[in-house]
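User: Predict the complex.
Assistant: Input components as received:
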Amino acid sequence: KNEVEQSPQNLTAQEGEFITINCSYSVGISALHWLQQHPGGGIVSLFMLSSGKKKHGRLIATINIQEKHSSLHITASHPRDSAVYICATLHQGAQKLVFGQGTRLTINP
Amino acid sequence: GAGVSQSPSNKVTEKGKDVELRCDPISGHTALYWYRQSLGQGLEFLIYFQGNSAPDKSGLPSDRFSAERTGGSVSTLTIQRTQQEDSAVYLCASSFIGRGLYEQYFGPGTRLTVT
């Protein structure tokens, strides 16, 4: 069982819809990353958070340390948001990331 | 350059050959990471360098894989006697490690194909 589980694995939505991607993890962490990977492109770090909530433009990331759960929300989704979104955790006392399997998001116009 | 760079961007090699992949981290970043993204496998950690400390090699899949970081900057990942299962995108990332937590910045990756 992967230590980091994401859901859903695939998500297709219409432009303008509110999107939620979930991430659950099984061990204590010091921080959690949300990453974005476009087809054929590199990986961009969207957020790194250790508590609470962060917002950047239409993207919002939340984390609940007690429940070992994080969510990534996209408001007013757009076709350019189509990408793979990856949750990755940084274990306490370590520097290497443990990755979820990713969520492939497709936003149709 | 402002970001992490990797070379080559693509590499096709024959089974059994050795390959070297290069990573130039962001200037001033003290930590450097290598990850691998295999088709259908997701991302996995390979090795981590931090300053002058001994590297964390716990993710290297076999003794055919090695990496070094010269002068605390550029890193080279070497795969000896390549196998078809080594085909993947190899990603490098760097970050500044100090007090608190710092984001990792990823390079564009090297796509390795072993024929």
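Chain A has a mean pLDDT of 92.
Let me know if you want any component modeled separately.
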